[in-house]
Amino acid sequence: MSRIPEAVMRRLPRYYRHLDSLEKKDIIRVSSKQLGESLRMTASQIRHDLNFFGGFGQQGYGYNVTELKQKLVHILGIDIIRNVIIVGAGNIGNALARYGSFENEGFKLLAIFDNDEKLIGTKIRNILIHDSEELVQYIKDNKIDIVVLTIPGKFAQQIAYISQQAGAGAIWNFAPVDVTLEGIEVENIHLTDSLMTLSFRLACEEKGGC
Amino acid sequence: MSRIPEAVMRRLPRYYRHLDSLEKKDIIRVSSKQLGESLRMTASQIRHDLNFFGGFGQQGYGYNVTELKQKLVHILGIDIIRNVIIVGAGNIGNALARYGSFENEGFKLLAIFDNDEKLIGTKIRNILIHDSEELVQYIKDNKIDIVVLTIPGKFAQQIAYISQQAGAGAIWNFAPVDVTLEGIEVENIHLTDSLMTLSFRLACEEKGGC
DNA sequence: TAGATTGTTAATCGATTAACAATC
DNA sequence: TAGATTGTTAATCGATTAACAATC
Questions:
Q1: What is the helix (H) or strand (E) element at residue B124, kind and residue range?
Q2: I need a surface site. Which of A13, A74, B57, B124 has the fewest CB within 10 A?
Q3: Does the distance separating the beta carbons of A94 and B91 come in below 8 Å?
Q4: DSSP secondary structure letter of residue B62
Q5: Contact, A59 CB vs strand C, < 7 Å
């Protein structure tokens, strides 16, 4: 399989989401033209993207919705259960822990870590909050695929590093710093950056374009 | 000013964040080479990006940290206070409402809306939760720059639409659907999509690359 | 002045779109 | 078969990087 461009990879979950919604509406087949109209992109791009993974369609017919969705499930690896832990039981950590719908996509929350003694030992939605001191040992003892960082920025890089050393497979970072590590998958979510792009665009509009 | 490419715009908050941290360390000057090393990008790209907005540096010297940061503050428009409301007082809405640090960047949360009678009239961090019925009137009566949508997907497009009609300037959407509207700035945050890219990358690794 | 580093243009690289033969 | 639509290659477009004259 040829190396998948980053841009293509980032569109895959959107394809998956849309196919899932078509399937729920009992739609059996869909063409790249129809997909393009719904997703506001060119039919050409959709066919081009999907063909990195193989020819899933049929000339003159299009794509079978359920079949294509299943292919995407497999490509995205969401048919594999992934063990997840959250480090930081603050606002965002709490929200993610309570947000049930990740479980539907194969992500299983095993534990939460915090260093606040008032929180240690309590639970969020049946999930125990452990002492951060136990983090390394916990990762070593359990196969942890994804470590979610919802801690202050100043701790993020270091906790990411020790999580990697302990054997974690990926970091999902919500701290407002860029976590950079070699040899582990990292996804940075920068909510403030995103909000700033709205601020920028509003300011541009007010200036009459830029 | 020539039209700013999307890719450039998305890098601006990162520049701002880094300059802010340099300033806090009392660093006076910085070269594009140094910035490139810290941010893991080419010096060329940084100079190229900044020059869309003007020549902020000095040959043989580099950039003055405070001055460049101030330019970025102005470019990003975070020197303008933006009025924000949150629609949906669930997990994510709650977390965003409690997350104080947006206020540092010029975003002011005025109100929260929900349709759960048990929540209406209560407060999160001093911010009153209003009945969703009042949303349109509230936007009409107050200059609302940004409407944050932390509601189920099925309501997102419609609430975005009526918010626009009522006069809102931008939508920050956390519902797992793509809100598409003409004539209003929209930023979609798809947490599940982001998590799926980690799943994809882990699956790729396990397959030995793709 | 000499050294450093910018601003800016040109070259390269990658991603998107168009086109169309293949084929269901 | 005729019409539709894919898979795939070629053309276009945009973004990144390299190069270097300008200049502090």
A1: strand B123-124
A2: A74
A3: yes
A4: B
A5: yes
